Model the fold of this input.
Amino acid sequence: MQGPGSAGLSLGTLPLSANAVELKSASQAILDEAASDLEKVLAREGTRTVANTLEPIDRILLRVLDVQDHGSTLFSVHTSADVRTAAREASEASHRFFSAFFVNRAAYDALQAIDWSDAPPLARRASEKLLLEMRRSGVELDLAKREAMRKLSDEIDGIQFEFMDQLTKPSQAVEVASAAEFAGLPEDYIRQHPPDAQGRCTLSTAYTDVFPVLSFARSADLRRRVLGAFYSRAYPQNEEVLRRLLTRRREFSDLLGYPSYAAYAMEDKMMRTPEAAWGFLDRIAELLRPPAARDRDTLLARKRQDDPTAARLDPWDVAGGLGHGFFEEQLKTERFRVDSKSVREYLPYAQVRDGLFSLCERLFAIEIRRVEPSDLWHPSVEAYDVLRGGELLGRFFLDLVPREGKFNHAAQFTLRTGVLGRQLPQAVLVCNFFASTTEAERSLFRYEDVVTFFHESGHLLHHIFSGHTAWTATSGAWIETDFIEAPSQLFEEWARDPSLLVEFARHWKTGEPMPREIAERLVEAERFGRAFRWLSQVGAAAASLDLYERDPSSFEAGRLMRETFARYGLVPLPESSHFECSWGHLTGYSALYYTYAWSLVIARDLLGPFLEKGTLLDPALAQRYVKEILAPGASAPPQQLVENYLGRPLSYEAFEQWVTMPSTATTPANAP
Done:
């Protein structure tokens, strides 16, 4: 699989459409060869150098990382249950290789013994990152503890797969007794859910079923039942799985001498300590509470127009903090004169996709070219090559249609980590925007989905541009987790610019562009509730931190999460909810969900140079951003990248102004 101008660099050797037997055989062959090659490197005698130690080890780890990423991706997207099982096994096998390597004292000693005379600085950083990961895996402990650490690491990896596997299995459904309950929902949604002979239908907990109900259904009872099912979609299956995950991670951090798993998880991140994270969350919660309270009061006043006896907002009135809820949508229509259902008519998928691609080509001097590989895992998947000056930079795939067994959130999955001179980066953008019964090209986006599409594309750009550093350990795959959301949150801003929006927002029937005044009102309407929604995010971040900082034997996870969330959010989680059982971020992000708020502080500051220019369409500035922020990957600490780009240390000022910016949806005089 090579593209034009690739200079012979491989896009990858593992098959995307293999059956389970083929996948298992190909993966195992790579892992066996990697183990054999590692033995040869460690058996080498004489002076240790970059050429005879670091380079071959880095190459070995890249091959194993390919297996892990390939397996994780196919586990999340493949249509065959057998292939998903084989993919999970391949990923777990590669993880076992890594967990054994990271406690391999001979490998640790070999890397430490490298003669750094005349070695390039980036090679030294790659080695230091490997050595740090090995120390954090327990390589300096005695043999018995190293073995215990290895076993724990492997068990934790398996538990994470078990948790995520449950999220793909339908376990909750909502029965709709009559078409009357669909009042307020878009016409295409109603068509996609035809009633049976008794006039009933069943809603799943897929995003395409849930979020339109939470945004548009006039029936509060339907919203309540759908939100309850969504929050509990992996309950009770994941209750015990989560307990084991928290327990094993605590045992892991205990063996290393950390006061909590949260302390372990943050040590090598930008935040460094749980104390710093709590301080950060408290600081922005204090900032957000006054404007969030005004948002709440405005929403409650709107609810009282329908129900004069209403004493509070319920979670199903505000989408449970997950997005734009019913009364936000009502205010959009009434105060901003923006009907989200009508706006969708201007946002057909193909138009949005092509507009996003055109924007990227204009900003970053790249070409995005459709390709037709023969080994895709589903007919709806699209593949694209990214080129610059005729040279292939990498490949990405779009998998946007929900189906049984598929990952049901929105994320960018790494398929291949790119390393200069070895292989090109590949990524898969996995979302669930459209009903499987609707042709994707004709499917209509909600505006919130457009922002999500840009967000995930920001991850995609980061992966492609950072896939050309000299070492596996300096690639984007190794960047600090609490920086990783900054580029994606920054790229959302291009979806919030009215002048850019009208360029690609065109009516799906007439082709007429969205009127500029509608685009401006839409962006203004999106601003309303911003503080309210972000305060809910702070509550979620505090909950993840709380779960991982305490001894898991001392609390019940669901109750602790609801209590912690309530200390920050203005609308509590439903008492009967079990969101902790369906919150996938508790696996990969663990205690680090504060990443979203922290990365937003960074993103708002990174936007400053564009705002100073007065335009988001300055190619020279965009390409400097790529060169100084995205392309380095993990070649330097993110603090250093940010300071070099801005010419000063990171500041909270832009974030504080953005998140507290008042909306024209002022609180009515009769508000509480």
In short: The chain has 27 helices and seven strands.
